[in-house]
TrEMBL record:
PROSITE patterns in UniProt: AMP_BINDING
Name of this chain's protein: Amino acid adenylation domain-containing protein
Domain of life: Bacteria
PANTHER family the UniProt entry points to: FATTY ACID SYNTHASE (PTHR45527:SF1), NONRIBOSOMAL PEPTIDE SYNTHETASE (PTHR45527)
Residues of the AMP-binding enzyme C-terminal domain: 360-435
GO biological process: amino acid activation for nonribosomal peptide biosynthetic process; secondary metabolite biosynthetic process
GO molecular function terms listed in the Swiss-Prot or TrEMBL record: phosphopantetheine binding
Stored InterPro entries: AA_adenyl_dom (IPR010071), AMP-bd_C (IPR025110), AMP-bd_C_sf (IPR045851), AMP-binding_CS (IPR020845), AMP-dep_synth/lig_dom (IPR000873), ANL_N_sf (IPR042099)
Source organism: Pseudoduganella ginsengisoli
Limits of the AMP-dependent synthetase/ligase domain: 1-298
GO cellular component: cytoplasm
Length: 447
């Protein structure tokens, strides 16, 4: 386990672990000690490397090496010709379990290498590019931020400060001349909402969005700030290694939630019904991933793996399927549309509602900087609750109110899809990976 914050030592420690034949687990020092301890226990970690002045929880029971105290070699030693086979385990990443305990997922070298090979090809990255490292260490996305540039001859640019608000991000993108960036839609909306007016557009040419459904509103606002920037929409759960579907978003972006395109090279993205039969175009089903480059699954013994299932049509290498729990459909052109989580599809008064669609409509309303929609249950009845962050008043424009937002939504959506409660918030709470913190919103909605 490597404990620290964004710094060059993370790269060196990761490579050292791989050269020793070990599996690396990156841990953000900003996480609560109890969370770190739970992750270490779930992973079965035996050795810790502490970067800087970071310290592992006393209860971890690890042998610990302190990076700053380790002797430095006088000269570089020979590189091994090969320090791991492609199918060997490379890293541990985590998702939240239904019990509240983190679940450790074992990723492979060939899964990481295959994704980076695809991303190098599609982005055209090369020695003249500069890639920002903004992602928390504890999320697998950080691996593409670190190793995409380092396997492409590009520069990896690491900000000094741990907190990355709109002002510091704007300054860093400009001064570091960042050309390629990975981010989450919610985090991008927060940046754009408070972007300094005097900030230069900089050199940014490519952005990869991932982690949440991407709306046309996010894309349009991003392009206004960064004209000419190429936008990609990535999709793929941690269990399938970084991303398994991608689409280049056209300009202008079509209305609503953006397509996730098609599976990347070497993988398949299927839409299956409840009986695991292939859906027709336009038919709603679950997105299921087939790939020889998926993860090795969950680490802890006894962790149920019902999401990994045998391929009913084909065995052998790559025959295992991963059920994502995400709803989707094939568009008429064969591309994939994602419609949110199965958990996000609700029926209210007999009407099926996609929360991602309602959120996209709220984001497009005048005076709204960002929005989120969730469901609460009161007295046995479900109701939609919408949260909206007001945009900064500009040029004398009237500030958004719950009443004006409701009127805008009624003009855009069927009556059953308009949230029965609309809450104006200063900002949407985010978790460590930049996504909306749904649990904190639910607590607010229930209050």
């Amino acid at each position: 386990a490597v404990l620290g914050q964004r710094c060059p030592g993370v790269v060196a420690a990761t490579l050292a672990a791989w050269m020793a034949g070990a599996v690396v687990m990156l841990v953000d020092d900003a996480l609560p000690p109890a969370r770190v301890a739970a992750m270490l226990e779930a992973a079965g970690a035996s050795l810790g490397i502490a970067l800087g002045d970071c310290a592992f929880p006393a209860t971890a029971g690890l042998a610990v090496l302190h990076w700053d105290e380790m002797p430095r070699p006088a000269a570089s030693g020979p590189m091994p010709s090969q320090f791991a086979a492609g199918g060997d385990a490379a890293y541990l990443a985590f998702t939240s379990g239904s019990t509240g305990k983190p679940k450790a997922i074992l990723g492979s070298h060939n899964g990481l290498a295959q994704f980076l090979d695809w991303q190098r090809g599609v982005s055209g990255i090369g020695p003249g590019d500069r890639v920002a490292n903004f992602t928390s260490l504890s999320f697998d996305v950080v691996l593409r931020e670190l190793f995409l540039p380092l396997t492409s001859g590009a520069a990896l640019c690491i900000p000094d400060q741990p907190e990355l608000g709109p002002g510091p991000v704007a300054k860093f993108l400009a001064t570091a001349r960042i050309t390629l960036l990975h981010t989450v839609p919610t985090l991008a909306m927060l940046w754009l909402q408070r972007w300094p007016d005097e900030a230069a557009a900089g050199a940014l040419r490519t952005v990869f969005f991932a982690g949440e459904p991407l709306s046309d509103t996010v894309v349009a606002r991003w392009r206004r700030r960064f004209p000419g920037c190429t936008v990609y929409n990535l999709y793929g759960p941690t269990e399938t290694t970084l991303a398994k579907c991608a689409a280049q978003v056209p300009d202008p972006a079509p209305a609503g939630i953006q397509s996730i395109g098609a599976a990347i090279d070497g993988s398949q993205a299927l839409v299956l019904d409840a009986g695991l039969r292939l859906c027709g175009r336009g038919e709603l089903g679950e997105i299921v991933i087939r790939s020889p480059y998926r993860s090795h699954g969950y680490v802890a013994e006894g962790v149920p793996q019902p999401t990994f299932i045998a391929n009913p049509w084909h065995g052998g290498e790559g025959g295992t399927l991963y059920r994502t729990g995400d709803l989707g459909r094939y568009e008429p052109d064969g591309r994939l549309a994602i419609l949110g989580r199965r958990d996000d599809q609700v029926k209210i008064n007999g009407v099926r509602i996609e929360l991602a669609e309602v959120r996209a409509a709220m984001q497009a309303c005048p005076g709204v900087a960002d929005a989120y929609v969730t469901v609460v249950e009161q007295g046995g009845a479900k109701q939609l609750v919408g949260f909206a962050v007001a945009a900064s008043a500009d040029g004398g424009a009237a500030a958004v109110t719950a009443a004006s937002l409701g009127a805008s939504l009624r003009a855009r959506l069927a009556a059953a899809m308009v949230p029965s409660r609309l809450v104006l918030a200063d900002e949407l709470p985010r978790n460590a990976n930049g996504k909306v913190d749904r649990q904190r919103l639910l607590q607010t909605a229930a209050a």
